[in-house]
Design goal:
With 199 residues, this protein is α+β, with helices and mostly antiparallel strands. The chain has a single domain (54-198), classed as tt1808, chain A, CATH 3.90.1570.10. The chain has 6 helices and 12 strands.
Length: 199
C-alpha cells in the first residue's frame, strides 16, 4: 500500500497583499506549518516572520535562560520562549521573544487551553530588536501588550543600546545602555544581566 506524501511548499506573500484569518483558521495554519513563525493582528492580518539571525538568536537564548533559571528557582509562574503563541483579549495571536505568567493565572486555564495558543495575556513580555526589525512596529506591539493586560514589558533595542520599559498607565521609560534590568514587582527579585546582549 502506498502512502501519499505531503509536500512542503514555500509561500511568498507580496507586501502589497494582506491575508486575513480568523483565530481558528490561524491555529489550523500554524499547526500545518510548525516551522514557520506566524503572528496574527487583532484585525486578522497574517504576519509571517523570518527566523532571527544567529547573533540575535544567541542573545535571545541568553535572556530566556536567565528568565527560566529565575523562574525555576522561585516557582512563581511559568516562563515561555519565542516559539510560544498567545491569544490576546483583543483577538490577536502573538509570540513575544520571552514571556512570563503568574502561576495562579496559568493554572486557571484548562488543559485544552494550555495546549493551544493560550487565551491569556502574559504578565511580562520581552521583545529583542533584531537587525532588520522596525522599531515602530515593535513599539506598536509593546503598546498592544500593555493595552491587553501586560504588567511589565521590555523592548531591548541593541542597535541603539536602549531599553524601553512599558508599564500600564505610565509613560514609556527609556534607559540608555543599562547593565541590567529589574523585574520590579512583577518578576520579584529578578535581575536581567544585559552584558551578553550588548556585547
Amino acid at each position: 500500500m502506498t502512502q501519499a506524501k505531503s509536500q512542503t511548499l514555500a509561500v511568498n506573500i507580496p507586501s502589497t497583499l494582506t491575508l486575513t484569518l480568523t483565530h481558528e483558521q490561524f491555529i489550523e495554519l500554524a499547526l500545518a506549518n510548525r516551522d514557520l513563525q506566524l503572528e496574527r493582528t487583532a484585525t486578522g492580518e497574517l504576519i509571517v516572520m523570518p527566523p532571527t539571525g544567529s547573533d540575535t538568536g544567541k542573545r535571545n537564548f541568553d535572556i530566556a535562560g536567565q528568565l527560566w533559571l529565575w523562574n525555576r528557582q522561585t516557582k512563581l509562574g511559568v516562563a515561555f520562549d519565542s516559539s510560544t503563541g498567545f491569544y490576546l483579549p483583543n483577538g490577536s495571536d502573538r509570540s513575544p521573544d520571552a514571556v512570563w505568567i503568574r502561576q495562579d493565572r496559568w493554572d486557571a486555564l484548562s488543559t485544552e487551553q494550555q495546549e493551544t495558543f493560550a487565551p491569556i495575556c502574559p504578565d511580562f513580555v520581552l521583545e529583542l530588536r533584531s537587525k532588520n526589525d522596525s522599531i515602530e512596529k515593535l513599539r506598536a506591539k509593546m503598546r498592544e501588550y500593555i493595552d491587553n493586560g501586560v504588567r511589565l514589558g521590555w523592548l531591548i533595542d541593541r542597535k541603539n543600546k536602549q531599553v524601553e520599559i512599558y508599564r500600564p498607565n505610565q509613560d514609556v521609560e527609556i534607559l540608555n545602555h543599562p547593565a541590567n534590568l529589574s523585574g520590579e514587582d512583577v518578576l520579584l527579585e529578578f535581575v536581567l544581566d544585559l552584558t551578553e546582549v550588548w556585547n
